[in-house]
Prior knowledge:
Residues 174-308 form the Arrestin C-terminal-like domain. It holds the Pfam family Arrestin_N. The chain has 340 residues and is mainly beta. Helix content is 5%, strand content 54%. It has helices at residues 311-324, 331-334; strands at residues 9-13, 19-21, 25-41, 43-61, 67-87, 95-109, 126-136, 144-153, 168-173, 179-184, 188-189, 194-202, 209-222, 225-235, 246-254, 264-266, 276-288, 295-303.
Amino acid sequence: MGSGFSNGVAINLERSNPLYYADECVSGTVQLSVIEEKLKTHEIYIRLVGEIGYTTTRSVSDGRGQTTTHTEYHHIPFYTLKIDFAQLSAGQEQLVYNQGQYSWPFQFSLSGSLPPSINLPQSYPHVRFYLQVVIGRAWYRPNTRETRYITIFPRVNLVQNPRCLTTTLFGTQNRKEISLKGTLNKIGIVPGEVLMLTLELYNPRRVRIQCIDLLLFESFQIACNSRELIVFEVTLPNIIERSDEYIQEVLPVNIPSVLLPPSCDFQNGLRSVPRVHLRYFMKFAVKVQGMFTNFHVDVPVIVGTECIASPLVSSQFNQQMIADYDPPPPYSSVVQQNVK
Length: 340
């Protein structure tokens, strides 16, 4: 399997970047090079498959008190489209292609309610999409298959969810009475943009604060498998080796221009198809001098694919935001009083 030639079959896409949004079309051409003297088949088709993959383990006893653990791999298709290129006609026993070059165009219109591609196609757990050409052979000969993976994201415009553009407050406190209060100008993010972060630290004992690390995590659960990946990590400037009683900093946070699947909670209503839940959160990890003094706070964020509004929608949205604006709550209400 692969994206190049294999047994004389190639899948060529119309675009060089195999990233598609769920309201677009996947189109291209299948090329067949008949290398043998003749190719005999009963069908040729291409299909687009969306598949959820995960693993389970089970213990197997050998009857002598020894047990081994086996990993089982599960592949659950939840979305399939098919285009036939060649089929047998009534009374026809086989299709014969002589040596030469053959090609067929194809186009699939994607559903608007697909989950995003998650994780690498060969890693588990995953949500993956692929195109596959099948050349059907006689029952005693294996079919020829050529597979090409593509990336599909649902289109998530943060402007359509006003909550994504609202300010969020967070806070926590450690056993040394160091209180952290923070404000993000919005909880919805798009790769490549800049967030504005305001941090306030109250340090009555003037303990040395070594640094504050900011990490963005991608966390997903597919069936019974879960994973957490660090998208990026940065040490915030201007808060390094400081012991001020009060610190306030306004900092830009640059979200890397990397390919991030948007936040989602996918359930297609069928019990046989596992749930896919993908979320993101920012972790502010405060490193403090001393034993057992480090602390952190997690802030959920929503990742979208775009943040675009027409002038009319933008004007209406801004007016609504102004009308609905409430002043932020007092500091005491956002600082968690639990001792870390």
